[in-house]
Structures are given as structure tokens and as C-alpha cells.
Amino acid sequence: MQEISKGANVSLTALSEDAGAVVVSLGWTSATGAGDADVSVLLLDENGKIRSENDFYFYNHPAAADGSVQLLGKTPTSNGDEDRISVDLTAVPEDVARIVVAASQYGGARFGDLDDLRMTVSDRTGEPLVGYSIEDAGVETAFIFGELYRRGEEWKFRAVGQGYETGLTGLATDFGIEVLEDTEPAASAPAAETAAGTAVVPAPPQEGGATAVPAEAPAAAPEAPAAEAEAAAVSATVPAQTRRRAPRTTRKKVTLPKVAKKSLAENDTWRTARLFPVPSLKSDKEREVRATSVLLSVMAQVPELGRRLTAGFGAPAGRMQTFTEVPLPHGDTPKRPDGVIRVERAGKLWTALVETKTHGNPLKDEQVQQYMDIAARRGYEAVITLSNDVALDGSPVVDVKIDGRRKHKVSLWHLSWAEVAHQAQMLIRHEGVGNAAHAWLLQELLEYLQHENSGCHGFQNMGPAWVPVRKGIEDETISPGDERAVDVVESWERLIRQVCLRLGGELGQKALPVQRTRRDSDPRARRALAAAALCADGKLSAELRIDGTSSVIAVTADLRTGRVRTSVDIPAPEGSYPLATTKRLLRALAEAPADLHVQSLVEGENGPRGTLERLRPEPGDLLPRDGAAPTGFRLSLIKGMGNTRGNTESGFIRGVDAAVDRFYHGVVAHLGAVEARGARRG
């Protein structure tokens, strides 16, 4: 990969023969774990202006109809977060001269608060071509990281690194987007109905908000969320909000209501007819064949899902066809990959072989290696593995060897069944698809994936090291440096990633694990440190952040006590009266579980604490006796974590997932008003 400095440029064609489509990655880390930014992309003409409102892509307008641009969303890396954008340069309209890639922050945050700001451009195989690091960020609230631009028949990349103290508003103005200032705070609107009949309830507007409008924008659109308040450049003047909504696109999208219609069955023994029945599945082979056929069929019929699952793997936007059990020559015996995906665009074919595992069965290195060799010989672009396992950055799912002597490169990608379910959930519940039939197909796919017989339940086994490590911790016989502890730490990271996928799909918001290490740190060294801590104190710890909240949820599994603790720290508003703040917090938690532990924090130290049930009649018991004002409060729930290593009702995996789910819905979801009030006072 070629590293360039600010202002430098390089030809993508000169760096790769396969640069017709690229993946642009923006990454950063945060010491606090709470830092974040929202990515946006602008298509500009020769005059450096957008042609219309559809040339501005952000969270609520994530994809171009022609497939030229698609925001793939955030993914956790070994040391932070990364936003990825798929750009099919062959599909970019001729009158687009430049593609600007930017990011913005909100709520008073600055890019100087983030570390390791970096932009990387990779070809369609995932091979990094060029990288650029921003090292001079300070008070800026918006940044142009870089741009792709035409020079004759080729595309080039320029490292820009231009910051704006005026946020996305100032950046948008430079590219022909008219900015309208709100002179008065708008009143909270009533719940708005989406196309599917689900309500979107706006939160109180922030003070002094500004939104951007293209010069030819249509009439006012529904409220946009706080994270995109300025990014709502494709809608009319609206107040900033704190909740995400269905994406704003040029065409009406269809979602399904969360609450199903009342059943017409006489009793609960009547089973609804399903498009993809699963009760008859008995063997692993049956599960694999059925699961592969079901998924690939829906991907071909529902363009939104097919594109969502393959864009990050370098596939172009085009006509997709899928096949199963295709015989391909390999030595004396033909091989039959579980599936084949082919995408046609402009007379060219992109092909990927698919190897599927269900029911927790592991992928086999030798089998995947054979498919990599077949793909290389036949000129295919990718091999996609699909299983219950969750891929982690810096930790391969299978071990294969790439023959560097071959001119044709084949990329290896992994997809978890949990990720498939997450994307289906996002489309049918939150972002929408093109028509009702597609929404129904996705609902049937989701029902299939979630059925107990499908074998497609995502990560569901902590591995063979779990039982001996847990027993070693209970007996205090495990020693630091035990490799089995590293295996458990890696499984723990996979579990947390899956918890984020499930919760994010349910909420329609980004949920990501938080990493507090620098981007250039070694994931294996980080896991070794976590394993040493596990051997010493018997605890597995993680943090996750849910978009739309400013809090970081901490999850700790204590293997010695057999309990899972979920907690969040809430800062106290500056200048407020301690008793009034305490009463306000307890009122906000009126619907929270009675066994919630509440503890006051004084200059980082632990103060008085008690359960919510005991504190409700006596909120003053939370105040330190020496009169010191609390700097914040720690809210915690504790539950048993399960004994078995798997995903059974008594299992550890299900216990952790249930603990996070209960904590979010029972506690974090009620804290929006408290956080907003604290932010305004701050």
C-alpha cells in the first residue's frame, strides 16, 4: 500500500488493474470510547457543485440508484471503528468530475478529540492501494478526508485533509448546498407514521440547530436524527433530533410493522404456513443445502439485500443470479461449492463461490483452500464463507495460503448468519425495500433464520477451551500465559460483536464494540493482555456503544461468581443542585427494574449506593455525607450468566445477550431526557 501526504495525489489505475470499483474506508479511535463521526459523500460536477439533492449521500440516504455509491456502515476494527463506502467507478455518471468523501461531528465534539484519523482506498478484492493519515486535526467539526477525481479515462485519488470549524453546514455551503438557519426552536412534532404504519417519535429539538438544504430541495421532510441534523441536506429545514428514522430516499420505501396482525387461528397449535419450512430438517447436510438455497434465492430476488451483502466484497451493482451445488473441475474429482453468486454489469461478470456451514459446524481449511484454487484458475473474483462464526479484524476464520505467483487475485470474505439476520432486520423494520413483496420475502427469510431447526443462529459456542478455563479460574489453577485463555478472550469478542448485531438490528441504530487501544496495536497482543487479566481476576470485560446515546455500556462476566454485570456511567449536569439532579434521575428511571443498582460518583471515587427500590422513597441517600457534589452516577444490573458454554436457555452466550438486552430496554432507553438535559447545561 502506498502512503501519501496531504495534498498529494496518485492514479488508482497505476496502483491496480482491478480499480474499476473501490472501497473507501474512514477510520478513527477514541480514548474515551465515545468518539464518533458521520460519513457523507458528495458527487460534484466540473464546477465543483452538486447536480441535485441526490448527489449527497449520508446515513438517511445511503445508496445511489445506479449502484455507483453505497455507504456500507460502520464496522469494528481491532482498535476502533471504520466506516466503509463502496464506489463503483464504472457506474459513476459521465458529468460527475469529483467524488468528495467527508465526515462530520455534532454536539460540540471536535475531530481533535479523535485519534488515528485515516482514509484508505482498496480495490474490489479488498487489497489496500493507498492510505492517508490526518495528523493536524484540532477544533474542526467537519473534515474532507479525500476525493476521487477524473483525469481523462482514469480515476485518481487526492489526500485533501481540509477541516471546517462550522461543521457540515460550512462544508455543504462550499458545494452548492443552501443553508437555512433556524431562528426559533421548532416545537416537537407528533408521532409521524411511516409507510408501514410504525411511529417515529421525535425528541425535543436542540437549541440553535442549523440544517442544510440544496438550492432545489423539495418541501419539508420529516425530522432527521441528531447525528444527522446537519447532514439532512436533502430535506427542508427541520429541528435536530435524537432518534434515527427510516432512510430518506428518492423513492418510497416499504417496511413491515413490528407488531403482527391478530392471528385468525382457533388456537396456538395452528402453525402459519411458511415459505421456507424448517421442521423437517434433520441432518447437517440438509440444513446447509436448505439454508444456502433459501438465502441465495432471496438475495437474487430482493436487490437491496443482495447488494447489501455483496457490495463490501467488491461486487458491482448489476443483475444478480445465484446457483447451488454447481460441479466444478478439480483434479480427478469435481468439487461442488454450496453456492455461486454471479453479478453482471456492462457485459462483465463478477463471480463468487460460497461455502456454507450451519449448526455451529466449523469451516474446514482444506475445503476452502480448494475453492480458492478453483476460483483462481477460473478467473473468479471471490470466495465467501458463511457460518455461525463471527469474523474479527486480525483473526482469520480459516487459514488458507495465497499463491503470490498467480496474476489473478481471489479475495476471501466471511459472512456470519447473524450478519445476514441483522441486514434483513434493518431493511424490513427500519430502512425499507422497494415493494411489499420484497419486504414479505425478507420477513420469511428472517423467520427461517430464527427457527430452532435452521441451524443459522449465529455464534453459539464458546469453544473447547471454555470449560477448562472456567474450571481453572474457579479452582485458581490456571496460570497466566495459558493459550486457552486467549481462545476464550477471542470467543468473548465474537460474542460481543454478535450482541451488537442483534441489538442494532432490533433498534435500527448502529451498535459497536468499543476498543480503547490505538489503531496500530497488535490484536494478538491485546488479546494476550486480556487473557492475562482473565487468569488474574477471573473476569471478561467489554464495552459497547449504541448510536443515539452518549453513554458506553460496560459488560463484565465474572467467572468466579457466575454473574454478568451491565453498567453505564451518567455524568451529572454542571451547575445543578445535587438533590434535584438525583430526584430527576430517579424519576427518569421510573420504569426501570427495581433491582437496578445506583451509585453516586465523587471525583472518580465510589460514593453511596443502593437499589432503585430502596432509593425511590429516599433519593437523598445517594448524596455523600460530607456534602460533596456527585460528578455522576453508575447504574448497574447483575444477573446469573449461565453455566453451559453454548446458546441453550441455561447457556453463557444467551445469558450475556439477555443481560445486555434487559439493561438497554430497562435502563438505557429511559435516559435520553437526562442526557439531553445534561448536554444543554454543559
Helix content: 25-40%
Which structural category do the helix and sheet elements fall into?
A: alpha+beta
Across the major sheet, the strand order is 24-25-26-27-30-28-29
Rounded Rg: 26 Å
How would you classify the quaternary structure? single chain
Report the principal-axis shape. globular
Beta-strand residue fraction: 25-35%
Unreliable residue stretches: 181-251, 676-682
Task: Give the number of DSSP strands.
Answer: 30
Instruction: State the end-to-end CA separation.
Output: 43 Å
Description:
By secondary structure, the chain is of the alpha+beta class. The protein contains 14 helices and 30 strands. The strands form seven sheets. A seven-stranded antiparallel β-sheet has the order 24-25-26-27-30-28-29. Strands 1-10-9-3-7-6 form a six-stranded mixed β-sheet, with no helix packed on it. A six-stranded antiparallel β-sheet has the order 2-12-11-8-4-5. Strand 21, helix 5 and strand 22 (382-387) form a beta-alpha-beta unit. Helix 6 (417-431) runs antiparallel to helix 7 and helix 9 (483-507) crosses helix 13. It is globular and about 75 Å long. The two termini are 43 Å apart. The model is unreliable at 181-251 and 676-682 (pLDDT under 50).
